[in-house]
Design brief:
Blueprint: H1 13-16, E1 30-33, E2 39-42, E3 49-51, H2 54-62, E4 69-71, E5 89-90, E6 93-94, H3 96-101, E7 106-110, H4 116-124, E8 129-132, H5 137-150, H6 154-175, E9 181-185, H7 200-207, E10 210-212, H8 226-232, E11 236-239, H9 244-254, E12 264-267, H10 270-273, H11 280-306
Parallel strand pairs: 3-4, 3-7, 7-8, 9-10, 9-11, 11-12
Antiparallel strand pairs: 1-2, 5-6
């Protein structure tokens, strides 16, 4: 999968040190429970925040608290303002010394993506860490509200959370009752990597009337055999847009001789589908459209068979 790196450090200090939105200057203490069930306590709403994942960066901006961010990690490329912020590391590790030197009031980490050792080290350094790990749209909504409270942007957080749930519920109602569609989400090949049941993509596929063919696996990102994919006969294969043509050729070659193979390959920006942020609504709409196209193809094949 193509990885998009954030722009190099551009010290836009006027942006980074901008005054927080109204309410953030309150001296009222705040306390929330994070996605690991841990209590996060602040003497007052945070005004210096560091985000350790692209999705948590999007969450902070979505609640109107972007001006509190003093640093992010690589791949934090949305919204565009995130690209101007200093980077404190990424998938190869965090620069713990730099994080501590930035004196954050709050670090927003990714529970299943960041190193447990590094997150624990930040807490031992006396830094408050909120660990985010949403696997459903309701969990994303809850993150928006809790981060809003931690940053003094509760009103904005609640508004963003409500808008997200309403939009997603509308999609779910529209898709309810449609014929089921089986879906294989391809992350990487080779090795052939997909996303298992605990991942956000499983609930998104379900909202569109589909089923993740590896939703029964408990691993977050399991490696699977091509034969296992073929045996489960997915109706739709979802991959990155730049890879869709090559992926389709590969699977047609692998499935030669299997008359039941009718998988439709579609490319959808992974940032819209597997980042746990508000843009999940946009990704869900794109996925639902792909599943509808598969249903139409199945109807046409059925009609030809009857002729």
């Amino acid at each position: 999968m193509t990885r998009r790196f954030a722009l190099p450090l551009g010290l836009a200090m006027s942006f980074i040190l901008a005054a927080p939105a109204s309410g953030a200057e309150s001296l009222t203490s705040v306390s929330v429970v994070d996605d690991r069930g841990r209590q996060v306590n602040l003497a007052k709403p945070a005004v210096r925040v560091i985000s350790l994942a692209p999705n948590t960066t999007e969450l902070v901006f979505a609640i109107g608290a972007g001006a509190t961010l003093v640093a992010v990690t690589e791949f934090s490329d949305y919204p565009s303002a995130a690209r101007l912020l200093p980077s404190v590391g990424g998938i190869n590790g965090l620069d713990l010394e730099r994080i501590v030197a930035l004196h954050p009031d709050l670090v927003v980490g990714w529970a299943s993506g960041n190193s447990r050792t590094e997150l624990d080290a930040l807490e031992k350094a006396g830094i408050a860490v909120f660990e985010s790990d949403p696997s459903t749209v309701l969990a994303i909504s809850s993150n928006l509200t809790r981060l809003g409270e931690l940053t003094g942007h509760l009103t904005e957080g609640e508004a963003a959370a409500s808008a997200l749930v309403l939009a997603f519920d509308e999609i779910t109602r529209r898709e309810n009752g449609k014929p089921p569609v089986t879906v294989f989400y391809q992350v990487w090949d080779p090795p052939l990597v997909t996303l298992g049941g605990p991942q956000l993509i499983t609930s998104v596929i379900s909202a569109c009337g589909g089923k993740n063919i590896f939703g029964d696996l408990s691993a977050l990102a399991p490696t699977v055999d091509p034969e296992a994919v073929i045996a489960r006969h997915p109706d739709v294969i979802v991959t990155e847009p730049s890879q869709s043509e090559e992926v389709e050729k590969t699977w047609l070659n692998r499935a030669q001789g299997d008359s039941r193979w009718h998988a439709r390959v579609t490319g959808i920006d992974p940032d819209l589908l597997i980042r746990g942020g508000p843009r999940i609504v946009e990704g869900t709409r794109a996925l639902c459209a792909a599943l509808d196209a598969s249903r139409e193809e199945a109807t046409r094949r059925s009609a030809k068979t009857r002729q």
